[in-house]
Amino acid sequence: MNLPKDSAIGQLMGHFPKAGIITWIGLRPDRRVPVQAVDQVEAIAGKGLVGDHYQGRSTSNRQVTLIQEEHLSTVASFLFVERLDPALVRRNIVVKGLNLLALKDKQFYIGDVLLEMTGLCQPCSRMEEVLGPGGYNAMRGHGGITAKILQGGIIQLGAQVIVAEKEEVKDLYVYGKSL
After folding, report:
1. Per the CB 3.0–4.6 Å rule, which of 21, 48, 93, 124 could disulfide with 66?
2. Which of 37, 95, 87, 44 lies closest to 71, judged by CA?
3. pTM of the predicted protein model
4. Is beta strand 64-68 parallel, antiparallel or unpaired with respect to 93-96?
5. 50-99 pLDDT tens trace
6. CB–CB of 94/24 below 8 Å?
């Protein structure tokens, strides 16, 4: 739903209290293998993250998966565990301090990398395996988001996540067409 920027709700939805921060990065080299935590990763426009098994699928809207650090704490509390290792939920990037659902219909930067939210990252049955009984339901509503990469670059731990204004990226070409 694209609301006019000058409407009251459009203005509210355009305000973010601060930038988010990347606190963890993980790559899934293949299906059903352990996630590898890394300090940085190369993001390729229209492809995905180098070293991740989703990399190379230009038609995919799931080139990158992101989850809020705050939701990891919530899921941990549902499971009655003190802390949840981000690798267990099999997302690529953990973000602290930014409501990822507020990125709906928006483009955003992680450092110099430009992404666009493409949807919700729903939990799969694997969550029951790795988190234990109730893991699937603990993740429901807390699975994060999916995104596609519009402009590549390097994503590093500690990088800021900032919403892009459409005017900032109007001359950017993706997949051979202007945004």
Report:
1. 93
2. 95
3. 0.85
4. parallel
5. 999 877 666 788 899 999 999 999 999 999 999 999 999 999 999 999 99
6. yes
* Residue 41 dihedral angles phi and psi, to the nearest 5°: -150, 150
Residue corresponding to tokens 């299906």: 31
The residue with tokens 């180098």 is 50
CA distance 70 to 72: 5
Nearest to 65, CA basis, from 49, 42, 41, 88 = 49
> Token pair 């430009």 is at which residue?
114
Structure tokens at 1: 């739903």
CA 47 to chain centre: 15
Could you identify the residue written with the tokens 């990158």?
64
Residue 86: Cβ within 10 Å count: 20
Residue 104: in which H helix or E strand, if any? none
